[in-house]
Amino acid sequence: MRDDSRGRVIHALSAGRVIDALSAGNPSISALNERLRSHAESDDRIIAGHTDADDEEIASAWLRAFLRGSPPPLDHRPVAQLRGALRAREALHQIELVPPGVPDIDECRRHFELTELIEPLRILVGQSLPGEPDRFARRQTELRKLRGFVDVLRSEGAIEMGSRWVSRSARSVSSTFGFGQTRLLTMSARGGLGKSTLLAKFVLDHAVPRHEFPFVYLDFDRATIRGRTPEQLLIETARQLGLSFPKYQPELERLSDALRGVSATATPATDLGEAGHLLQIISKQILADTQASTFLLVLDTMEVVQNDSEAMDDLVEFLNALIGLGFPELAVVAAGRAEIPELTDSGAREKRDPLPWSVTKEELGPLSVGDAVDMVNLLGRALILSWNPAWAHTIAGAAKTRTGGASH
Amino acid sequence: MSGNEPMPDVPGDPASQKENFIWAIATYVPEQLLAWVVQNEGVVEDYEELVKLQTEANEERPIAVARALVAAYEVEGQLHRFASALCRELRWAREFLLAATPFVVPPKTNHEAFYARRDNFFRGENLQRALDEHLPQVCCIVGRYELDGEVQQRSGTGFLVGPNLILTAMHVFGDLAVRDQARVPECFAVYFDHVKGEPLLRPNDSRQRVRRVQLASPSWLVASSPILSGDGRIDEPDAAMIATMRQRFDVALVALAEEVGAETLTPGGGRRRSWITLPASGSVTLERDSRIVIPQYPFGEPCSIDFGRYKERCRSGTRIRYNVEMGRGTSGAPCFDREFRIVGVHNAYFQVPGRDEANQAIYLDTFGSLIRPHLSNAAPPDVPLRLWNIARQSEPPRVVIGRELFLDFVSAGVGETATTARAGRVYAAVAPLEGSGKTFSVEILRAAFADRPAHRLIELGSPSELLPSQVESVARIIAERLGVPATEFASMPTRPGIDLPQGSLDGDKLRRWASELVPRWLLNRLEQARDCEVDKREAARSLIEQDRIFNRVTPADIVAIANSPEPVIERVEKWAYGWIAVDRLPESAMTPEVQDFVAALIGIGTHEASTLSVQRRLRWLFLGIKPDFLSETEATVEHLDPGQGAEQEVAAMLRSAFAAANQRLRDDEVEDWSKLIAGVGRVYDQQYTDKSKRYEWMQKLSQPAPQPYFRESRADGKAGPQVAVLGAAGRSLLCIRACRFRCSFREATAEPTRCSCRSSPVGRGSNRRASVYRAARREKRNRGSGAVSYLSPLCTEDGSNRGENAPLKRGRIDVGRPKAASHAR
Lengths: 408, 825
Known about the structure:
The complex is a heterodimer of chains A (408) and B (825).
Chain A: H1 3-14, H2 29-38, H3 40-47, H4 55-68, H5 79-91, H6 105-125, H7 140-150, H8 158-176, E1 182-188, H9 195-207, E2 215-219, H10 230-244, H11 249-260, H12 272-290, E3 295-300, H13 302-306, H14 309-323, E4 330-336, H15 341-344, E5 357-363, H16 369-383, H17 390-402
Parallel strand pairs in A: 1-4, 1-5, 2-3, 3-4
Chain B: H1 14-28, H2 31-41, H3 47-52, H4 61-75, H5 79-89, H6 94-100, H7 108-117, H8 127-134, E1 138-147, E2 150-162, E3 165-169, H9 176-179, H10 184-187, E4 188-192, E5 211-214, E6 221-225, H11 239-245, E7 251-255, E8 264-266, E9 269-272, E10 291-296, E11 304-313, E12 319-322, E13 334-336, E14 342-350, E15 358-363, H12 364-371, H13 404-414, E16 426-430, H14 440-448, E17 455-460, H15 471-481, H16 510-530, E18 531-535, H17 536-549, H18 556-562, E19 569-573, E20 577-582, H19 592-602, H20 613-616, E21 618-624, E22 636-639, H21 647-660, H22 667-687, H23 694-701, H24 726-741, H25 743-748, H26 766-783, E23 787-792, E24 809-814
Helix pairs in contact in B: 1-4, 1-6, 2-5, 4-5, 13-14, 15-16, 16-19, 17-18, 21-22
C-alpha cells in the first residue's frame, strides 16, 4: 500500500466512516501500522470465534484485518462473523485503494446473505455451525420420501435406490418425448408437528454441504415474501440463485432490474412470462454447469398464502411463469398446515386448466413416542452434561402433547 | 425519579460540576435538540464536524461531544448562554436543571421567560395541534411615543383575522390614537413569532426569527369602538351605563402594511401563517367553568399561554369574565374556548371591592357586526407552500431544486389529513447515481419539521453511520426516538438461537421472530408511548423544583396540583407521526432480516385498512433504491437523476421563493433565469462527465458563494471549463428582490457588501467583477496563469448594468499571459 493510499485510509477514518476508530489523534502511518499489527493476534481469535466478542468488536476485528491486507477467507463462517465482515467492508466502501486480497462489498454481501438464508433452518434443527451435527432425529421415512422426490443426494439403501431408479427412468422417458412435467410434493401437517423442522433438515442436507444444484427457499413466514406479486417472487428467486451461483449473478441481477423496471438495457424483460422464461434458461444453464438434474423450489408456511386468495393467485402465476412451456427439472416442495388444493386439484383452480405439474401428497403424522424420546435425548445430551436418558420418557410424553414432535 | 424524592446535591467543586453538566448533556439532551441549540447559538460553527471529530466508541460518543461543546463555549466565554439555552429547552428534566444551574447566569428576563411558558406543560388532547396552528397568528404590539413631552411606552397583544388585519383592544394605542392618530403607524409595530429571548420594548426592534410588520399608513385603523372609562371596575351598571357599555367595546381592527397572513412561517416555504376565522354570530355559547385559553405577550415577553375557566357575563352582556391569568401588555389577546374558537378580545382586569378578582374580555357576539363587514370572505390558505429553501434564517439560502414528488409527499404527510393509501406513507427515491439528492431528502425533512415537534424524524443510516444490520438495533433506534422508555427494551422478544427453544411454539423460528414477534412488540410499545395518560402532579412537582432552583415563588394552583392526594390524569399525545428515513441505500443494503422487520412494520402483506393505527402513523422513506418487497402501488417512487435538466425545476423554486414572501416573480424574470440555468446545465454537461455535482452547482447558483467559482482558460487557447462566478452572480436575483420585501434575506447574505441590490434592483455588477478580477490576479500569482472566464446574466463585462432583462453574458478577464500550460483545478 502506498503512502498516499494510506493517507486516504486515515482520512476516511478521521471522517468517521469506520466502526472502531484506530486512534483518537492523528497517528502517523507507522503508528497506524504498529497499531494494526498489535491487534493481529486478538483479531484472529475474535474472527475464529474463540471469544465472546460483541458485534462491534467483531466488525472492528474484520476492519483491522482488511486494513492489514490479510483478511481470512469468508467461507464457512458463522453469520455473526460474516455480518461483521460486511459492516467493516461497507465502512471502507469509499476507500479508493484497498489492499489486495480484501473481498469487495458484493462478495461479502453474498457470503453473508447466503449464510443468513440458511441460518433460520440451522436454528430449527439445532445445528451450532454449518456442517456440524444437528439435533434432528427420526422422521426417516419422510426424509427418504423427500430425498427420493428431489433425487439429488446419494440413496441410503437398496430399496430407496431402486425406487428412485424407476422414477428417474420414467421422468427421463417423459422428458425425451417432450411431456415431462414439473414435480410438486405437498406436505401438510397441523401446527407443531415438526413440519418446518423436517423441511429445514431436508433443505440443509441438500443445500449446505455443496452447492451442486439450484435451490430456492421461499418461506412465507417472511414479511418480505408474503402476499407478494409474481414479479417480486421471481426477483427473490433470482436473488437466491445468485447467492449460490455467483457466476450467474450479473445476469440474474439484470433480469431483476428488468422486472423492477429500472433498466432498459441488456435484458428488457418486462413481461412476466418472458422473465420467467429467462429465469428458466439461466436455471438450466446452472443445471448444465453443475450436471444436476433438479432445480429444487421449497415453499414453506403455505398456510399464510392460503389465507389470501389473491396471494395464492399470485403464487400460482409465479409458478406458471417459471414453468412456462415446461420445466421438468423443477421440483417444488410446498408445505403447509392444510392440504393445498389450489396447487393439487385442478377443480379448485379458477381456470380449471390441467395442472402443469405432477402431484405427490404427503401428510405428516404425529411423532411416535419412540422418535420423541430419541429427540429429547439428543437435545438433553446437547444441553445438559449430566443428562439422564430416563428423563426423556417423561418429557417426550409432555412434548408430544404440546408440540407433537418438533425437533427440539 | 418522582417529584417527591429529595433533590440530589450539586457537587461543590467546579471540576465536578462541569463533569456533572457534561454528563447531564449527554444523558438528557436528545441529539437532534442538541444540534438545534448549538446551531442556533452560533458559537460552534460546524456542529456536524465537531461530532465527526469525536472518535470514541458509540456509547462514549455523547459524552465526548458534550465535553467538546462545553469546552468550545467555555473558550468563547459563552458557557452560560449554552447552559441557559439548554435549560429553556429541557425545563422538564429536573436532574438536568440541577446539573446546569451552576453554569446559568440567569438574568431576570430568563426567569420571566420560564414563567411565561411554564403552562405549556398542561396540554390536552389535540392542544398541541391547535397551538401550532394559532400561536403564529397571535402578535405582540409595541409602541413608544412622546406626547406632551412625556415618553409613553405601550404594549399589547393582537391576532390576525385577515391576511393583513389584526384585531386588538383599542386602548393598546393609548392617547396617541385619540390625539394624533396619524402618528400611530410610525410609533407602533407588530411582532409575530416572538417565542424566546428578551422582551420586545421598542417598535424598531429587529431580531432573527421574529417577524416585524408595520402598520398600514396612513389608514391603519379600519374599524374601532372607543374605550370605556373605568372598564373593569363596573360591577352593577345602571341602564345608562349598560347602554354605554353596548356602544364602547374597546376593540380595533388594524390594517398592517404587509399581508403577513399569506406568508409562509419560514422564508423557506411550507405552511402559511394564515389567520383566525371568526365564528358566526351566536354559534359559540359559554357554560360556566368551561375552558378559556389565552395566548398572550405579557410585558412584551415571549408568547405564553394561560388556561382558565369562564365565570360569568356582565349585566350588559358585552363583557365576559374568567380566571385566566393575564399580565400587563396582554390587552387585545384572543380568548379561545375549548375548541379554539374565538369568544372575545381580552381588554381589562376586573377588580371590584367585594368581588373575586378576574380578567375580562369583550364578548365577540356583541361587537362582531362591527368587524365582519371589513373581513374578506376568502378562506385562509390551508395548502402549504412548496419548500424552496432549507437553510435557517441566519444562513445563506440552500435551495431545493425539483423534488416535487417528495415535497408533495412530505406536505401531505405533514398535514393532518389521514392518508388512506399506503403510497401516502411510503416513499422511495430511486437514485443509482451519487449527487442525486437522496440524502438531501433528510435535510428537507428536518427543515419541514423545524416547527413541528409532533413529527419525529428517525434516521437509519447516514453519511457517517452504517445502516443497522440487526433487527434489535433497528427496533431500539425507532423505539428510543419515539419515546418508548428504555426499561421496556428488556421485554423485546429474544432472538431465536440454537441453545434453547424460547418457550413458545415459534420460539425457534427466526423469520417469524423478525417478521411478527418483534414488529408486534414494537408497535404495541409505540402505541403506548404515543398516546398516554400522564399524572399532572409530576409536572407540577417539577415546576416547583424549577422554582426552587431559581428562587421563585410557585403559584398556588401549581402547588395544589402537586399536593393533590389523587392522581390528576391528563391524556397526552407525545408524537403524531414518525418519519423513518432509511438512508445509504444502495451502498449499504438492508440485511434480509431487517427487510423482513421493516416490511412487517409497514404492513406488507396486509391490506392498508387492516393495519394498526400506529402503523399508519409511521412514514417510511427509502433513499437510494426501492426495496424489492415494495410493489409499485405501495410506494410513492421518485427517480432522481442529477444529469437531468433543471430548468423547469429552478423556475418552480424561484416562484416558490417569492410566493413565500407573498410576492410574485414576473414571467420574464423566470424566463431569464430558466435560460441561465439551461445554459449552465449545458456548459456543465460539456465539461464534466461526472454528474454527481450537477445539482450542487444548481444550488450554488442561488446562494452567496464564499469564494467566486471560476475556472481558468487553458494556455493553449482552447476553451477550458468556463463556468464562472455564478455563485456570486446567481444569488443576486433572489437577494435583490427578496431584500426589498423581507429583511431576513438580507441577513441571509453572508457578506452584505456583495448584496448588490442595495442601490439597484438588478445589481451593480462591479463588486462581482472586482471579485473575479481579484481571483484572476490571485491565480496568476499562484499558478502563473490568470485568465478567468465568467457568465453573468445581469451585468456586462465592464461592470455596467444592462437591466433585469440583460441577456446571458459571457465575459473573460485576463491578467497577463499564462506562463505554462495548466489544468483546470
